[in-house]
Amino acid sequence: xxxxxxxxxxxxxxxxxxxxxxxxxxxxxxxxxxxxxxxxxxxxxxxxxxxxxxxxxxxxxxxxxxxxxxxxxxxxxxxxxxxxxxxxxxxxxxxxxxxxxxxxxxxxxxxxxxxxxxxxxxxxxxxxxxxxxxxxxxxxxxxxxxxxxxxxxxxxxxxxxxxxxxxxxxxxxxxxxxxxxxxxxxxxxxxxxxxxxxxxxxxxxxxxxxxxxxxxxxxxxxxxxxxxxxxxxxxxxxxxxxxxxxxxxxxxxxxxxxxxxxxxxxxxxxxxxxxxxxxxxxxxxxxxxxxxxxxxxxxxxxxxxxxxxxxxxxxxxxxxxxxxxxxxxxxxxxxxxxxxxxxxxxxxxxxxxxxxxxxxxxxxxxxxxxxxxxxxxxxxxxxxxxxxxxxxxx
Length: 394
Known about the structure:
The protein is built from 17 helices and 14 strands. By secondary structure, it is an alpha/beta fold. β9 (169-174) and β10 form a beta hairpin. α5 (105-117) crosses α6 (132-144), α9 runs antiparallel to α10 (221-229) and α14 (288-305) packs antiparallel against α15 (313-324).
């Protein structure tokens, strides 16, 4: 529709273009994905063209390859068994995991070179096997090669299976800023294999539980009750409980992305995690989930102090986190800059710049009910930090 201002001395015609693009991708939960008799991966490859041989490159976390020395051979055997539909055009390409893969664009260039050398086109696949950092980096490569090749995520950590892996974000760090270079690009499929979780170190299993607690607190009271009731099983990493936790958490994230109106984060809310900068402040000595857990505890106490959350609920939440194995304190949370400002509050400003718009933090008005606020009282933050510290000293 054209809009023309006949009263203006400058005659302007504006045409408003509108269109919507539906996105759809499967999120599968399975076990032993690379067992030749498991059809999950080949079914994902053939989802749109059933009678075609699909070309693919696999990027594999090198740490996972060391932990599971048979994995590379299992992948190659799987592809050979399904060669009618699955053309693995090279040996799995080993790449570094963790923040290393996200901290140097050289790795992005190398992966793009691999796709170019193997003639991966927009109907071919870039498959990522690894934790959240690997998925982020390979997702960026897939989204920017030919303006988008098909990307299949195979998350191998609790946090990537129950949170980041089912989302639509990709990115790497640049200019010292986390995820400064990135895209919103939904994957072609997400394949969660609970068998990978069994091989994680206990600390990494625990770290991934923080996201389940967080999503339950801001979105689903019943899930929080389930976490409390199954805390013993989760604290001992019982496989059935871990699988159910991952699936329920992933489903809540999927519902938020698909049905709450802002899948590409055009808003500016940061959910219940005002201490997210702790991960960087400790030079990644804290796992992401460990920093999230401290942020949850801090924000729950803050929610009580500002009158949003009933007193005593913060103790209940912290007890669950501690029972699951989290230590809710790190000395870095007290760090201040040259102006005496808490670094964790500066982290909120950094995130506001990343998202754009005004500062928006999701706090709690009840377990299962998040509420957005647009400012944080520095004195109440300090009181919340003192409260956390006192818990560790008693």
